[in-house]
Predict the 3D structure of the following.
Amino acid sequence: MFTGIVEELGEVVAVEDLGDSSRFRLRGPLVTEDAKHGDSIAVNGVCLTVVDTADGEFSADVMAETLHRSSLGALSAGSRVNLERPMALGGRLGGHLVQGHVDGTGTLVERIPGEHWEIVKVALPAALSRYVVEKGSITVDGVSLTVVDAADDYFTISLIPTTLALTTLGLKKAGDPVNLEVDVLAKYVERLLGRGAVAAGDRTDLDEIKEMDR
């Protein structure tokens, strides 16, 4: 579990094509200082498992499913990436609950500079639009952000100088793909409501409780 608060702006050192998967070598001295085999590190919002670490770098295998659902397949040696270690229990939750399970990719459409910040417009797949609401949370390339405006086919976010300077969002151009993870709580609520969280037998119990309350 992550928070969407990027710890380090890392770099892709090498990408090895393994046919139906790829092995990435990434540089991130901060996130690897206590990392070991089997640990998780979020790369542009995608939760990857550490294979090995050495000299401030780590390797991770990226399966075909991940390459298909995210923008990691477009990365190459020299690409900059957002890195975050999993949250520690008992620590501060600075962003929101992020799983590192990308729901799809969007496209940066426009950057609108302000005096001290930038408004960024991102096109998103129609299947994800119902989970994106004004003032709600969304993860873009692993960065926890608050939605400014939400439409059927796009949303906007406001980026402060810190986010622009310390994450890849300051480097993205119009037309670039971004990984999107919507709020998992919204998906659970939809699933429960779709199935009918309260079965017919349970409704009777709820009605009895209401009568008791009266």
In short: DSSP finds four helices and twelve strands in the chain.
